[in-house]
Amino acid sequence: MPLALLALAIGAFGIGTTEFVIMGLLPEVAGDFGVSIPTAGFLVTGYALGVMFGAPLMTVLGTKVSRKRMLMLLMGLFIVGNLISAVAPTFSVMLIGRVVASLAHGAFFGIGSVVAADLVAPDKKAGAIAMMFTGLTVANVVGVPLGTLIGQSAGWRVTFTVVAALGVLGLAGIAKLVPDMPRQEGVRLRHELAAFKNVQVLLAMAMTVLGFGGVFAAITYIAPMMTHVAGYADGSVTWLLVLFGLGMVGGNLLGGRFADRALMPMLYVSLGSLAVVLALFTVTAHNKIAAAVTITLIGALGFATVPPLQKRVLDQAHGAPTLASAVNIGAFNLGNALSAWLGGVVIAAGMGYTAPNWVGAVLAAAALLLAVLSAALERRADPVAPTDPAAAGSEQNQPVKQRAAVHN
C-alpha cells in the first residue's frame, strides 16, 4: 500500500478522535462552563449537523483546486476548529469550534476516498478506502479512551490541544506523501451534481443511512442497556466500547478486502448478518458475556459495510465522484441521527432499553432489501456490462494513466 494512505489514515484518526471523545468528556465540559449535560450535548449534535452540511459545501468550494491542496486546507480547518475548542472562554465559542472542525470531516473522507482509490490498481480500490477508514476505527479503540483519560486527569482542554497536534501531523503527512493529483479536466460542479440523477447512487446512499443507522440504534443507548439490563458496572461501559472499536477495525479491513472481490455479495452478507445479530441482541443483552460478544460483532458487521458502500458510490458516480463521495459521508451521520432519535422514541414509549435493537434490526434489513433491489436494477439496465472485456480493459487502463501522470 502507498505511504500516502498512511497520511490519510493519520488525518482520519484525528477526525475520529475529536468526533467521539467529546461524549466521554461532557460532564467535565458542562461543569467548567456551568451548563447542563443536555445543553453540553449540543456539542455532539452541532458536530453531526456540521458534517452533514459541511460535506457538500466544502466539496463544492474545493472544485477549483487540486484534491491534495483541498485535503491540506481541510486539515488546516480541522486544526483551527480544535484549537478554538481548546481555548474557548465560553460554551458558545466552544460550540463554534466544534462546528468549524466538523466542516472538514465529510469532505476529508469524501475526497480522501477518491484519492485513496486513485492511488492503487482497480482491484484494490475498496482495500485502499478501508485503509484510510482504519484511522477512524482505530480512533475508537485508542484515541477516544486515551483522549478521555487525558481529559479527566489533565483537563479536557489538553485533549483538544493534543487532537489539534494530530491534525498538524496529518497535514504534514499529506503535504509530504500524497501526490499532487491534478483536477480532472472537463469536470465541473454540474458534472458532480449530475451524479445525483443516478438512481444507483441514491440507492447506495440510502443503504448507508439505513445500514449504519442499524448500528447506532443500538450503540447510542449501550450505556443504560448494559448497566440496567446486562448488569455491568458504570465503569465497564468504556471497555465494552473498546470491544466495539476492535470489531470496527476488523470489520472495516475485512469489508475492504472482500469488497474488491465481490462487492454486492459482501453487502448481502454484512447487512443480513447485522440484522440478525441486532435482533438477537434483545436476548443476549441479558447476559454479560453474550452481550460483550454481540457488541463486538455489531462493530465488525456494521463497519464491514463502509468500504463497499463508499466504493459503490464511487463506481456509480462514474467520472464525477467527489461530491457524491462526500455526501455519502454525510449519509453516515444522518443514519446516526435518525437511529438515535428512533431509539429514543421506543424507549420513551416504555418498550425498554433493548427496544432500540429491534429498530436497528429493521433498519439493517431495509438496507439489505435496497441492496437486492439495486443489484436487480443494475442487471436489468446493463446485463452484459460485467462480462464486456473491452469495457473491463478500458476501466483497468484508466488508473494506470492517472498514476503515470502523477509520477511524470
TrEMBL record:
It comes from the Bacteria. Keywords: Cell membrane, Membrane, Transmembrane, Transmembrane helix. GO terms for molecular function: transmembrane transporter activity. The chain crosses the membrane at residues 42-61, 73-96, 102-121, 128-150, 156-178, 199-224, 236-254, 266-283, 289-309, 330-352, 358-377. One of its GO terms (cellular component) is plasma membrane. Residues 4-382 form the Major facilitator superfamily (MFS) profile domain. Pfam families: MFS_1. InterPro entries: MFS, MFS_dom, MFS_Efflux_Transporters, MFS_trans_sf. PROSITE patterns: MFS. Its main location: membrane. This is MFS transporter. It comes from Streptomyces aurantiacus.
